[in-house]
TrEMBL record, chains A, B:
The keyword Cytoplasm does not apply. CDD domains: HTH_LacI (cd01392), PBP1_LacI-like (cd06278). Pfam families: LacI (PF00356), Peripla_BP_3 (PF13377). SUPFAM superfamilies: lambda repressor-like DNA-binding domains, Periplasmic binding protein-like I. This is LacI family DNA-binding transcriptional regulator. InterPro entries: HTH_LacI, LacI/GalR-like_sensor, Lambda_DNA-bd_dom_sf, Peripla_BP_I. The keyword Cell division does not apply. GO terms for molecular function: DNA-binding transcription factor activity; transcription cis-regulatory region binding.
Length: 371, 371
């Protein structure tokens, strides 16, 4: 969403978005916007999804309309969260809560402490609070919980995760495509020994990113990457990277399955092995979390835009609430490989955006050259 | 709370905390713990507060007991949040949500987008969801909202903020004491030109930190600090610091009212003024957010422990729910000045903790020496 910061007295208060702004952003008529927010009114599912995504990203609040929309409902969405010390997860939660708020839904937080036994929100509680839907943010969906929600008639949307069976709607970044892009970038940069730092082992994100990375390396004629698991956790990541870098033939290119683990990797490389990150070792993350852009971090990372992901998830939730029989959807939000100082650059394939970011856009795929 | 990360299959699952662990941590008997979790049972308010704080920080879940505790209630606490891109706010929200969860209360999130008009959660909604209490995290309490909640009988606790009238319970870090310590540290380090980067102008935190900083500088015989406002926002902070550093006599010591603004200050000093932070300019923050410890940031900062603050807030909420007539309490959680590379060190007064952190513990107060 656009950043608005007008707490200071006297600061200019931006005009709140109107129905016309939403119509323009969604590329539909005003009456289509109005119909999209009126339960029972005819609106094509695709149109409604576009309108809700635009409304969420603009922060449009159809207050009275939204309130009357679903009077038989609790207006509550159970949202599970985990590891808010990971800045990307915090951004995603903020974008989701604001997006739900914009269409009159309220976030009921189920924080996950990290023990697998506690990973599912309590179904008892979900039923007691009569939540309209469940959104799982970066947490695993157990088949038991999925079946319980289905039999209770509570729709579930996964954000930044997918379920194995495909029966649950999901919104993710471009896990496979992004990881492939990273592999191609590192091959083009002339690296020799590749490594992958996995997240939690049963995370679909980590699995998909590992697959994309290993597939693209193989296709370029490169060696299979070394592998260790950092479990999306700082301490576990430090330990895994320490072991990798102490090996006789340490990697010169390390792809970490998210930025949070890449921060730990940078710390270990610098502080314990005295390596110049971006010169003696290249480290790449996934998320493009806010910390990645800081001067002392300067992390190359494949982006996942939290506002776009949250907007799609809000639209998916609204769609399934309007039509409970709607089949599951799986949405992939595109990202970009944002190039900074933590990884050696290829000679070609770079582009600078109008807002000053440098991207790697690739080109002809490079082949791995054996040392 | 202790970090537990056992998502990986086969990882050792730590034993969940027992009533005995809580009793030991709180320094009370097991039966006192049990009484503290039983509504109507006799437990001294001080004891109950200690027990609930210990339970929250250990992640103790008295499931069945907690559920039966307050059957006439909704078990919902409305929690307002703002700026989760600030890692300290995200940590505080996580600790609070886990602490509430541990005593059977559920977090209903009211995200604040940043426009002052939207700063109060909607009282309509709070009443409609029949929330038991309201916790405002790092957001301003308007006197209108405060009066509305009082007349509706909904208790309010402020976290990381205080209200002007003192009638609303609050939990804060040691704003005045921490800022005084920072001033003494910078004077002892031989700095000459001091500056303060304020947050949102009507924030009690920013006001209290400014007061402590200016008072201690004056008492040491130093000059009044320069001043600019960064409004707790990255873009506004960058602009304010850019202007300060471009002045004919730029500061050599900059205290930012929180770490989030200090990150922006470090970026501007390095990237736009090519300054060696910690040598040519000293930059100090407040929060000791997780980012402060990263190798490329290495920010000296006065700590606010989120788990301890959340634990006290949960105890305050539980106490007021048990006894609505309880007078407002104002708690200050102690912190430490954690010394890293972003500020020049004084010759004396440093100490190293058993976990390897370096603190400035001061000693004889230094006097400012004019250049």
């Amino acid at each position: 969403m656009p950043r608005r910061d007008t707490d200071q007295p006297g600061a200019r208060v931006p005009r709140p978005p109107t129905i016309a702004d939403v119509a323009a952003a969604a590329g539909v008529s005003r009456s289509a916007v109005s119909r999209s927010f009126t339960e029972g009114a005819s609106a094509a599912p695709g149109t409604r999804a576009k309108v809700l995504a635009a409304a969420a990203s603009l922060g449009y609040r159809p207050s009275a309309i939204a309130r009357s929309l679903t009077t038989r409902r609790s207006h509550l969405v159970a949202v599970s969260t985990v590891r808010l010390e990971n800045g990307f997860n915090a951004s995603l939660l903020q974008a989701l809560a604001l997006g739900l708020d914009a269409i009159g839904l309220r976030t009921l937080l189920f924080p996950i402490a990290g023990t697998s036994a506690d990973a599912d929100p309590s179904l008892d509680e979900i039923l007691r609070h009569r939540v309209d839907a469940v959104a799982l943010l970066a947490t695993r969906l157990s088949s038991r919980f999925s079946a319980q929600c289905a039999s209770a008639g509570v729709p579930v949307v996964l954000i930044n995760r997918t379920a194995r069976d495909g029966a649950t709607s999901s919104v993710t970044g471009d896990n496979v495509g992004g990881a492939r892009r990273i592999a191609e970038f590192l091959v083009a940069g002339g690296h020799r020994r590749f490594a992958f730092l996995a997240g939690v082992e049963d995370s679909s994100n980590s699995r998909d990113r590992e697959r994309g990375f290993a597939d693209a390396l193989r296709e370029a004629g490169g060696p299979a990457p070394l592998r260790a698991a950092g479990r999306f956790d700082r301490v576990a990541s430090s330990k895994a990277v320490r072991r990798m870098l102490a090996a006789p033939e340490p990697p010169d290119a390390l792809f970490c399955a998210n930025d949070h683990m890449a921060l730990a990797a940078i710390d270990v490389a610098r502080r314990e092995f005295n390596l110049a990150v971006g010169h003696q070792i290249s480290i790449v993350g996934f998320d493009d979390a806010p910390t990645a852009a800081l001067s002392g971090i300067d992390l190359t990372s494949f982006s996942q835009p939290p506002e776009a992901m949250a907007g799609r998830a809000v639209a998916a939730l609204a769609a399934v609430l309007a039509d409970p029989a709607r089949p599951a959807v799986h949405e992939t939000v595109a990202g970009e490989l944002v190039v900074r100082g933590s990884a050696r650059l290829p000679a070609a394939g770079l582009a600078t955006t109008t807002d000053g970011r440098r991207l790697w856009v690739g080109g002809a795929v490079s082949s791995f050259r054996a040392p």
